[in-house]
Write a structure and sequence with these properties.
single chain, 5 helices, alpha+beta, 5 strands, globular, five-stranded mixed sheet
């Protein structure tokens, strides 16, 4: 099978316009994958991003489950074909976690690959090699959530949302 890798970065640091988002589709076409393997990929990705940040003298990002849930939904929507690969619906995702994770800056990286070993390493390496993604990874953020989903063809879709929270802990 051919190897494919797609990466897209989005940086947004201005407040979003308020609005009501439509609910997520209850019909998902992505194939079932054991949740633990996808959760493991999410945690591996966080570890690699935080290792990279540490190598640059930056503080590690803290996991936020509310943000991760939005990242997972977006990855699943891309994997199932509900939305195209990219950042469609970013405003809705940010709106949906804003009450539990108030923010002053947000950014998002997405990545898609198929048939490659070490998917988390490939995704993070791809982001490091891309100036826009690297800027997000090195940004002044303190929270993150990562979601990974597998499409029927075996492709993996990664979404990482970066948040500069208004709360400090």
């Amino acid at each position: 099978m051919p190897t494919r890798v797609w990466i897209v970065a989005l940086l947004l640091v201005t407040p979003l316009a308020s609005g009501v988002a439509s609910p997520l589709s209850s019909q998902r076409r992505a194939s079932a994958t054991p949740a633990t393997s996808l959760a493991s990929l999410e945690r591996q990705t966080l570890t690699r991003v935080n290792d990279y940040r540490a190598s640059k003298g930056l503080v590690g990002l803290r996991w936020n489950e509310s943000i991760a849930e939005q990242a997972r939904r977006h990855s699943l929507d891309m994997a199932s074909g509900v939305t195209a690969f990219g950042h469609d619906g970013f405003d809705r995702r940010v709106h949906d976690f804003a009450k539990s994770a108030p923010w002053t800056g947000v950014a998002e990286n997405v990545f898609m690959l198929r048939n490659l070993p070490d998917p988390a390493g490939v995704a993070v390496g791809g982001w490091i090699d891309s100036p826009g993604h690297r800027r997000n990874m090195e940004g002044d953020y303190d929270l993150t959530g990562i979601g990974v989903a597998r499409a029927e063809d075996g492709s993996l879709y990664f979404t990482q949302i970066f948040v500069k929270s208004t709360r400090t802990r």
